[in-house]
Amino acid sequence: MSPDDAFDRILASLYRASLDDALWPATSALIDEACGIVGSGLVVGEIVNGRGRIYVARNLYRGESRLDLAREYFDVWYPQDTAIRRLTGQPEGRLVHLPDLHSEDELKTSPVYNEGWRSLKAQNGLNVRFDEPDGLRLVWTIADPVGGDGWQSTQIELIGRLAPHVRQFIRVRQALDGADALGSGLETLLDNSRIGVMQLDRGGRVLEANGPALDILRRGDGLLDRDGALHAWLPEDRSRLSRLLRRALPDLWGEAPGGGSMTVRRPSGRSRLGLHVSPVGERSVDFGGRRVAALVLVVDPANHPHIDGTRVAVTLGLTPSEARVSALLAEGLRVQEIAAATGLSENYVRWLFQQVYRKLGMSG
Which positions ≥6 away from 311 have C-beta within 8 Å? Predict the structure, then answer.
């Protein structure tokens, strides 16, 4: 199989997996085979008060999940791994050879490199980091190449082409998770009221849209439906959206479609809309039939689920202040945002959480 054919197959599988997490192991195995690597890992986290906080760590080797290896690394080796922190000093999106993050002495003497990364089968691996606007950091770790001949240029080129699509896979998964829609298919997604969903045909025309998406289109609040086609309100955003849709929709000559994300400004002055566009379906000849070719997820930052603090207080036996900050935490706000929303100091908010943890017998 040629690298281009392998890339097309992986892309199709990757975007299917973005809607169905059960397909990710098979997609990961496909990447391993095409790129000639032992396996790979996905990590999502952020830096809080100078310390790394990990939210997701998934390591798969030829489709087999190895949570035990990921847990060992983060429990034992990550706190003392200075090299992976040096990755933050590298340009975003650049593939970095793990040995290049170590000094010559560390390559010989570092227990992290010689034991921790060996257990992950990634001593000769590659890493690429992406920074998200909300402070999250995404890291794709590519394990060692198969065999002992080192990296070939064709392998590195294919991995580099795939990296932004792996990033998009994570972005779509995050958007679905935020809407409590993980595992939803194309049709059931339309029933979700926490995220805007639009299905487009291969010409970019709107086939179906759910309630939140229709509300935005009717008000023209950032997005418009002109003669059935999706447009952005501002000309600059309109051009970017047009390019994004062209990339995601099937090409006449068989180019593999790819997804992408962007933000859209709104005439109301409210927070920008977040758009995640993913190709869906098979790239088959449809002779002009109007079938679903792309999925558009529209995230409105202002559309947070509201949790009743009074109910929380009664149900869990908390004080009004404890219940209020707990409800905001459950809605997805961070400590700094909770402090700003309530007018309390960050230290007092943290103290309130300590009281909640104590009452509920929780450690965090």
Answer: none
